[in-house]
Amino acid sequence: MADEPRTNDMPSVRGEANNLKLVSRATYFKEATLKNLFLLCAFMAVAGVALIFVFVGYRGWPIFSEVGAGNFLFGMEWLPTKGLFGILPLFVGSIVVTLGALLLGTPVAVGAAVFLSEIAPPKIRSVVRPAVELLAGVPSVVYGFFGLLILRPIVADLTGGLGFGPLTAWIILAIMIIPTIATLTEDALQSIPDGVREASYAMGATTWQTISRVLLPAAKIGIVDAIILGMGRAIGETMAVLMVVGNAPGFFRGMGEPLSTLTSQIVMDMPYASGMHRTALFGMAIILFLVSMGLVLTVRLLSRLREETS
Amino acid sequence: MSHTLAEHQPGFVPTADACVKIAVRGLDFFYGDFQALTDITCDIRDNSVTAFIGPSGCGKSTFLRCFNRMNDLIIGTKVEGLITLDGQDIYAPGVDPVDLRRRIGMIFQQPNPFPMSIYDNVAYGPRLHGMKKKADLDEVVETSLKRANLWKEVKDILGRGGLTLSGGQQQRLCIARVLAVQPDVLLMDEPCSAIDPTSVQKIEDLMAELKSTVTIIIVTHNMQQAARVSDETAFFLQEVMGEPAMLVEFGRTADIFTSPKDKRTEDYITGRFG
Ligand SMILES: Nc1ncnc2c1ncn2[C@@H]1O[C@H](COP(=O)(O)OP(=O)(O)O)[C@@H](O)[C@H]1O
Ligand SMILES: [Mg+2]
Known about the structure:
CATH topology of the domain at 19-112 and 185-269 in chain B: Rossmann fold
Number of helices of chain B: 10
Strand content of chain B: 15-25%
Strand order of the largest sheet of chain B: 6-7-8-3-9-10
Shape of chain A: globular
Radius of gyration of chain A: 26 Å
Bound molecules: adenosine-5'-diphosphate, magnesium ion
Oligomer: heterodimer
Number of strands of chain A: 2
Number of domains of chain A: 2
């Protein structure tokens, strides 16, 4: 064995003359146990994800084999009672809700990150930064409530109707993804060496020129990273969206018109769905799984790119 | 260099002596409560190289950064006394430090190119000042890189990232970046202490070429370098820890190195401390 314990009772030719303390058997076993424990934890994390994927894949597969991938993915109508399982409107709904939230949330988040990293005096920073991080920890049902009770009436006044629809969801989701994007963007800005800032100021650049011409371009990949992770958060968000989006599984018709998304529809239908309907919900879960996997892979690729360019 | 008492009076602005680029009178500098420099008075001559020497921590960088008001960026710093550039008080109310920094370039100890292409690094300053035409920018980039002794090495890789260059090349890139805005004064804070000997040689060469048009102030730890490149030398010393540093002696480099007037200068130059 490669890591045979070297213990005090090992035969030693120069036993007496050797002052170096050898690793005791107890220490050795403690180390080995800890190592294996951590290995087990890592294994469990991976196995958990794999297990879910296999389970969801197994339950969802018939939708592809029996209803057909085309009818499922590109079907224009979601009418399970009539045997129509087209998720395109729901998929489009998810995309609409996510992109709108990104468009609203990203500028605010990047602005907040720039403010925190480059402009705010240390005192303000030490208050605002934890506050932003706190936003990330608020349960999504709380955001949902806020959306339902406070935002929805305002949106209803703006757009007519009841206020259930993408606009309300955009605003809520935008607020929810701001902490993700802001903290990651701030990390990207903070990783730029101070010498770069000094150089820019010494060239006669103003703060704004330094930010827009040097720092933001330098943090570009990190910011794209942050946006993609924010996107993952938005596309997977269920509860808050479900509470405000209206849950009408048709195509997007307008900012104030009820809509549905993949995640919210799964939750809506799960309690009563059976047979192929239920299978379709698992099929939708497969799609969500693949989308988030794609996003994570993109982030991975980007950070490799970042390492190479710096 | 000796100054009459009258010159120490507050509010005194030295007459626009053609030879004096920067005049300093009775300068005190504070980091919050800590006074780093006390009562510094000296003249920096036009189109010459002035070396600042002295042990670590004696305020050379601090003093240098007063000239382009980089210390303004550190919260809680305070300058008292007078610094003039071409007879104009640079700390007078209304003087825009941003504009001042366009006339006074600075090179730092650690090469600090921007994470962008070599070309964009050099074009940074001209673009800030509103230069847009590709042909104009191309020309500035080429002449600046030539003046910085870097053109030959990079002329075929201008689109490559500035950070892919070696440390010494990066430092010369930083010099090219500064030269692109044609500063009157070049401040160099130990520009050679983090780079390879070949680049050091090239930087010393370019300093000799530049000084016909640019006033250079260089902080250096290397006595030989000070002796080689500078016309005048200033020796700074912080005699007691926690007390402000002062300017012990300032004069022609040849005099400082062969017949220093002050015992402390002699001790430092002959390597007895520091
Ligand atoms: N940002 C700062 N805040 C507080 N003290 C500083 C700062 N920078 C330098 N000092 C202090 O000012 C003194 C002079 O420093 P510096 O100008 O860097 O010396 P040198 O360049 O000669 O080595 C030192 O005692 C140093 O600790
Ligand atoms: Mg220094």
